[in-house]
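task queued by scheduler; priority normal; single chain, no ligands, no partner chains; default sampling; output format set to structure tokens
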Amino acid sequence: MIRSLGKFCQGSVDLSHAMKFFVGLVLSFAAASKAQQPGPTVPMTNHTCDAGPVQVNGKPDTLSEVPDSLGFYSLFNGKDLKGWWENCGSHHSDQDKTNGGLWVVDSSLGVLFSSQNTNGAGSLLSTNKKYDNYELTFEIWPVFGNDAGIFNRCAANGTNWQSGLDYIKGSSIGGSYSENNWSPVGINDDPFMFNDSYDKPNITTWTSFTATQNPASFGCSSGGCTSDDFVKVWNPQGWNQIRVKFYGGLTSGSQVTMETWMRKVQTPQAAWVPIYKSSKSVVTPANPIAFQIHGGTDRWKARSNNLYRNIRVRPLANDGSPLLPVSIGQAIRRRSRVSVSFRDGLPLGASVSRADFWISDAQGRINPGFVGEPAGKSVRFAHPKHRISR
């Protein structure tokens, strides 16, 4: 670099001018490389809040329920709000119970834009369908200064145990907060705290939590994720992914568990970075999943948007393990009788067969615990141990 500057300085240009020119180039490059959040190509206009979940033929209106190879179902088609309803029944819409916040789909970008109304009203965008145990993933491009969240098993009045998307000073991404006394004791856990900087929060308990999760695997310091590591796992100027697991607590005496992760959107995908895990002794029924726009002008940057895309969910067992979709295949060489039903995505029942048969997941992997034999032997499928008996 010194040699290059020396050559540049030959003639009538001195070193100070060269340095100014060089610094100007660096600043110009930095400004050009700073990603700008895309704006909507459609007007950010509101519509009247819904009275409740949208029903079709007496059932919740949802997208076509066809899972991908990992068992995830799409919750957002990138075209419209099919599968969702705007809930203005919580305190986040106190400024405007009729219109709430702004939820606008830009189909040309495949992106959901969200923003406060001009009067500071927020609202909840809630699924029409209820969920019990689930894993939710989505991509988000937020603006620093905006308070959003995922409302898990959200009741109509907004009662829930929230996975925070609080991209604001004094709070965190991926922490937890209970709304409307969802538990006997209020829950407010922040694994780290943003200060005045969107790219370097004050890391506290998150360091010790991530230290037990092999932090080198997701790019953090060996002792856990520190303040200086944050930009390694979070893109302050672009798309990021959030992952939430919420399971258990459906019956008396059981605990409900929340887990959250984050990572940048990149190819190849980086490892998920754990943020938070906690269990509470609270019973709560299945309810919709909701995205939040926080109400109140001090909780949202004026005229700014949080962006979402690729919202997906897959069912989990009560212990948090995934329930992959399964299919039954038969080599029909001889007559057979198969009677199998499914509970929580797993097979139950019996079969009397004179042909080989199998059960595989959506990736085509045959489960060896569910292989039947010919010669008329009866095979029973045991749930949930995944074993067979004769």
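post-processing summary
- Residues 55-315 form a domain with the Jelly Rolls fold (CATH 2.60.120.560).
- The chain has a mean pLDDT of 82.
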